[in-house]
Design goal:
six-stranded antiparallel barrel; Thrombin, subunit H; Pnp Oxidase, Chain A; 1 helix; single chain; mainly beta
Amino acid sequence: MPSWPRVITVNQRVALKHQSDPQVYHSLVQDVGENWFTVQVPTIRGIEMRLHPGDEVETDLYAEGMRYHFTAPVLGRTTDPQGIPLYRLAIPSQAERLNLREYVRWRVAVDVGYEVITDKDKDVLHLVKLHKKAPTIDLSGGGMQLLTKEQLAIDTLLLVQFELPPKKAIRATARVKRSVPRAEAGPPRYFTGMAFEDISVHDQEAVINFVFRKMVEDRQKGLT
């Protein structure tokens, strides 16, 4: 696996958030230099994310099953040869690296609303209505397994939403990694495993903490 910061490549997905705006914006890496990279100026409903030189933006970048979280100083605004507006961001010397495949997975029952989406829907996720529901079989900070009524194709992108006690709403995108029929008798059901793709650091920490507490509680009850 390439070392930081060489994991940053052209056309890589990136999530950006500034402290003055609760909205998470999604964009693509357009160019990479020795100590900087550029992203398309992200928009939501035609409204640009406003950044200025000297600002710092919370950044999540995904590569080969890893999520890299770092704070990137804004160097300025520029354009590509076609005139597309870009933000130039500095590459920090370090990033927090999270392995999405190594989170503790625990048997947890949570009702999840979900809807199939496409990459084009990412800028309007707040408009997407979730019409389908399924319970979890297990949950982790890196993803979850649902018992769905439908078999979903591998790499299908989903918008998922669920609530953790006491009243913490989690909303994220997840990509299907497997979907196999349940062997037991009864109505058709499918074990559908998925990995989170776009999930905020705070939401992911809430999931990890919830799973850890549930694991401790179950072990105390002898339910391991």
